[in-house]
Amino acid sequence: MIQKFILVFVLIISINIEAQTKYELNHKFTYLLTYQSDSTITYNKQSEEMYLLTNENVSIFQSKNGYLKDSLLLAIENDPTDELSMADISRFPKTQFHSKILKKNSKDSIIVYDKIITDNFKYLEDKGNIKWKITSDTQTINGLKCQKATTSYGGRDYEAWFSNEIPISDGPYKFSGLPGLIIKISDSKNHYVFELIAKSKIDLTYSKLEPKKNLFFTTKAVFFDKREDFKNNVIERIAQSGFIIDDKYKAKVRQKFRKRNNPIELE
Question: How far apart are alpha carbons 96 and 120 in whole angstroms?
Fold first, then answer.
């Protein structure tokens, strides 16, 4: 009983520390993600820009629009008298990718923040889940000499091209651990393709990593189960969150979520 109490206490302390941490970041890498959300429609590809924000010790990966929205919300939080208000939230940048991924060089696991409607979730994942095989193949991508590596992760086989001209052992999404920055990575079906399109030095204090409300510390398996449950019971789960969908739109909403049948992690 005492051991369980100590474990819970340690987890609460670590969560509070994470919530208060500010990260001083000095590099921004912008990736273009081209993806296919419906596996049955090959011609319907979508795209969204993603940010990898780093310093020598940590990195944060999230969508560009997610970052911009967080910045606007932080501005409102810091100055409620600002002309921008929560009433303008409908005009905030939109994203299909709500996850934020924190990687620390000193840790063997990554921290993932994600959400389902109004509920926020946090889980840990072992970096060792991604195992690389480095090949001798090389090519130049966007002016950078790159080397090929392969891996299997989340039910997909990936081909990655990294460059030791940028000696940062990191990359988009959960990918890291190669002797250079990942410049491009794609799965074997080209359903998800990340490609570096810009890089710049920055002087950024990142302070809005962890959501302040409705945050549940869970496991990856539980989060994925809840996400699948939401997709299968979308109308009911939305209603439980306090939102009402008019009957004439319910079939359209169900169809919309049925078409989102091709997540980046299949397993």
Answer: 15
